[in-house]
Write a structure and sequence with these properties.
Blueprint lengths: L1 H28 L5 H36 L5 H14 L1
């Protein structure tokens, strides 16, 4: 289900990107924007998109950590800590 949501989000983003580029190209053809202005808009949008992606990734990681803690599932760090304790006992 999570994979489906991810694919849906990516698909929606690609459709939106294509639509925005089409609309910007129309503005260039009408002479309302220059190619350079369009390129700047696209670059700004990419930067904002990257920042938003990083934010979403961090929020998702935190949500997963919370779920793991609530379910009392051992993390990799927990397992490594136990391994170290077992090594010391030998």
């Amino acid at each position: 289900m999570l994979k489906d949501l991810l694919y849906l989000g990516v698909g929606g983003a690609l459709l939106t990107k294509e639509k925005i580029e089409e609309e910007l190209e129309k503005l260039v053809q009408k002479g309302k924007l220059s190619k350079e202005e369009v390129q700047k808009v696209i670059e700004d949008a990419k930067e904002k998109g990257k920042a938003e992606e990083e934010k979403v990734k961090n929020e998702l990681k935190e949500a997963i950590k919370e779920v793991l803690e609530e379910l009392n599932i051992a993390t990799k760090d927990d397992i490594n800590e136990l391994k170290e304790l077992l090594q010391k006992d030998k």
